[in-house]
Amino acid sequence: MEFIASHEDLRKLYKAPGDLPLRKELKALDGHGRSFLARSPFVLVGSSDGKGNADVTPRGDRPGFVAVLDANTIAIPDRPGNNRLDTLENIVVNPSVGLLFLIPGMNETLRINGDARITADTALREQLAAEGKLPVSVMVVTVKSAYMHCAKAFMRSQLWKPESWPDRASLPTLGQILHDQLALAETADTMDRNLDEAYSRTLW
User: Fold this and answer.
1) What is the DSSP letter of 94?
2) Which of 85, 87, 94, 129 has the smallest set of CB atoms within 10 Å of its CB?
3) One Pfam family for this entry, by name (predicted)?
């Protein structure tokens, strides 16, 4: 198998981008970007460490959980998780991040690229509190580019169409997966009960 090793060889495989895909990239958030963020309950955060190891992690909460501080700055609260801190540790050494915001039922997405920093600023944490609980930290992202991404991937995948979804009962539970992967002594049912209990106590 041969692999493409240069920009020139890669471009030979594809048509040149049209004018619109290039012009739509903005250097700051406009009214549409702000409106999208106010309605989005979910974002995927791409980051990488100082050695080039990449990671993508989800962040989610009620619509509008990401605050727009100004046209070039947004703030993403860090709700309770597994404390691996993959994204946060990456940002400490490499601030570059790529963000993909989704709105359920909408095939278009909002892409934001920029530089992130982590803060434990009390005032900002209080501003982004949920259910009376402050986030441990906040990711503050300086927006370098923002643009709407077309719907093709979501249309092809039929992501928002329930009739295309697999029967959840046909898929293993997380408890079953962890039981099998880690050879745990606990049964899958016990693992699932423990996970459900943890979810109920630690969403915020």
Assistant:
1) -
2) 129
3) PNPOx_N
pLDDT for 136-192, tens place per residue? 999 999 999 999 999 999 999 999 999 999 999 999 999 999 999 999 999 999 999
DSSP track, the chain = -----SHHHHHTTSPPP-HHHHHT-BSS--HHHHHHHHH--EEEEEEE-TT--EEEEEEE-STT-SEEEETTEEEEE-----S--HHHHHHHH--EEEEEEE-TT-S-EEEEEEEEEEE--HHHHHHT-BTTB--S-EEEEEEEEEEEE-SHHHHHHTTT-GGGSPPGGGS--HHHHHHHHHT-SS-HHHHHHHHHHHHHHH--
Neighbours of 151 (CB within 10 A): 12
The amino acid at residue 173 is T
% of the chain exceeding 70 in pLDDT? 100
Q: pLDDT value at position 111? A: 98
Q: Which amino acid is at 119?
A: T
Rounded distance, CA 76 to CA 118, Å?
10
Report pLDDT for 186: 94
Distance in Å from the first CA to the final CA of the chain: 48
Which pLDDT belongs to residue 200?
A: 92
